[in-house]
Design goal:
Layout lengths: L1 E5 L4 H12 L3 E6 L7 H11 L5 E5 L5 H11 L3 E4 L8 H4 L1 H22 L3 E7 L23 H20 L3 E6 L1 E3 L8 H11 L2 E4 L6 E6 H12 L21 E6 L4 E3 H12 L4 E4 L15 H7 L7 H15 L3
Helix pairs in contact: 1-2, 1-8, 3-5, 5-6, 7-9, 7-11, 9-11
């Protein structure tokens, strides 16, 4: 199987590409190597992927329609996994246009490629942020998602609508996965685990929002990419589903799937796990909740279980330990 992954040098893209390559797939990676965070980490991930004979890398932006056309014409992938995006809730307040360009224009270009070149399955990375201000928990894929609280979330909700419309019009089988809070080795420097670990080792304060009364449904990256791998062959159809709790559209071969651990962790407990893994205490600064943040996320993963016979299983302390060990090795601490 030949799989095209956008954002292949990103945190999740790297782990997914590695897993698929190790399982015998050919992978075409696309990444723009943007400077949203340290490009050296992206290049280090990509260097590891380039050791595989079945990996082809193209450095370009998904906003570049001409480059995408050339890549698809040359490679003709069977499966498209669209992970590339401008991420981050708070940064979407500072730099909103980058979210419109990368997330909406970029996704439009990808669905146009799927339409013009065909593919067996388009898989798209959405986010738990689309649930926004919903207060009924755990979040279920069949809930309405009309209360986005950040532009980042709004662009991802828009992309769900765009992919659904193309799925309906052109019968493109599409799965939209709603990632909850992913973490693990090679994680993004703008995310809490990386920032907190770095601050602890450097003897700096960590900022704890909403006075620590935040809960996140964390999912370890190995569990997340295993879930994606198993969803590749769960291709949505147009007939009524017999799967309990299926989010399959009534008018298109399109569904959404939560990928999480079904276990919300309080932020203060998360920080304690990092302290235990580093063997050091954090200097804490408690602040009010930030604009765009939601106080709690909690997923129902029954659909993931029913589709794949798999659920994430890595314990938080194990995943945090793995990250801290990677961090110490990468930065030679």
């Amino acid at each position: 199987m030949k799989v095209l992954i956008t954002g292949s040098a990103g945190f999740i893209g790297y782990h997914l590409a590695k897993l698929l390559l190790e399982n015998g797939s050919s992978v075409v990676g696309i990444d723009a190597m943007t400077e949203y965070y340290d490009v050296n980490i992206k290049r280090a991930r990509n260097k590891l992927l380039e050791k595989y004979d079945q990996f082809v890398f193209q450095e370009t932006s998904i906003e570049n329609e001409q480059d995408l056309h050339k890549i698809f014409l040359s490679e003709m992938p069977e499966v498209i996994i669209h992970l590339a995006a401008q991420a981050g809730v708070r940064y979407s307040i500072e730099s909103p246009r980058s979210y419109i360009d990368a997330n909406i224009i970029g996704t439009f270009n990808i669905v146009e490629m799927a339409r013009n070149f065909g593919c067996k399955h388009l898989l798209f990375a959405s986010t738990s942020s689309v649930y926004g201000g919903n207060t009924v928990m755990p979040f279920v894929e069949t809930q309405r998602t009309d209360l986005q609280m950040s532009l980042y979330a709004a662009t991802k909700k828009a992309c769900e609508a765009i992919t659904h419309s193309y799925s309906h019009l052109f019968k493109i089988p599409t799965t939209s996965f709603r990632f909850f809070t992913a973490y693990g080795p090679w994680g993004r420097p703008d995310m809490a685990l990386f920032k907190f670990t770095q601050a602890i080792f450097e003897g700096k304060e960590i900022e704890i929002y909403n006075q620590g009364n935040m809960y996140r449904d964390f999912v370890y990256v190995d569990d997340l990419v295993e879930s994606i791998k198993r969803l590749i062959n769960n291709i949505p159809g147009i007939k009524p589903s017999k799967i309990e709790g299926d989010s399959l559209s009534s008018i298109a071969p399109w569904r959404s799937v939560n990928i999480a651990s079904e276990n919300p962790i309080k932020l203060t407990d998360f920080i304690f796990s990092i302290e235990r893994a580093t063997g050091m205490l954090a200097q804490k600064k408690y602040l009010e909740i930030q604009p765009g943040d939601v106080p709690k996320t909690w997923a129902d993963i029954s659909l993931l279980r029913n589709l794949t016979n798999y659920v994430p299983q890595t314990e938080l302390h194990t995943g945090v330990n793995n990250f801290v060990n990677w961090y110490k090795n990468y930065y030679q601490i």
